[in-house]
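Lab notes, practical 5.
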Amino acid sequence: MPKRSRVTMNLIRAGAVSLALAACTPIYDRHGYTPEQEDLDNLIVGVDTRGTVEEFVGPPSASGVMRDEAWYYVSSNFITRGARAREEFFRQVVAISFDEDGVVKNIERFGLEDGMVVVLNRRVTDDNIEGVSFLGQLLGNVGNLTADQFFDN
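Output from the prediction step:
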C-alpha cells in the first residue's frame, strides 16, 4: 500500500473514532427557574401578597389552572447520552399558595423524589379524513367550483 493512501486511511480512522467518541459525550439541559432558599426566606406567610412575591422571587413559571390560587416555579435538568432518550435526573417545584385575598398561605418545595408520574388523557378531535392523503384532499375540490362562486351578484 502506498504511503499516501496509508496516511489518508489513518486520518479517516482517526476522524471516525473522534466522531464516535463525540456521540457518546453526555449533553446536559436545564429548563425553568426555581427561586433560591434565601429569596424565599424574605417572604412572610400571612403577610406578603402576590405583588411582594413577584418583587422578591419574580413571576411564576405557571399558576393555578382553574383559579389563580397558587404560583408554581419549576426547574428540571435533563441528560442525553448518545442515541438514548433524554432522561430527567433533577426536578424541583416551588409552590406558593395564596388565600382568597391574595396573601401568601403556604410555601412548599418538592423534588423529583416527591413526584408521581401522571398519565394525561389526550382528547383529540377526530379529523374525519382517515385514509385520504394530502394530495387527495387538495385535488378533491377540483371540479366542485363554478365561476359564479368567484363573483358577487
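Observations recorded by the TA: Residues 3-23 form the longest helix (21 residues). The beta strands are 27-32, 62-63, 70-80, 87-98, 104-111.
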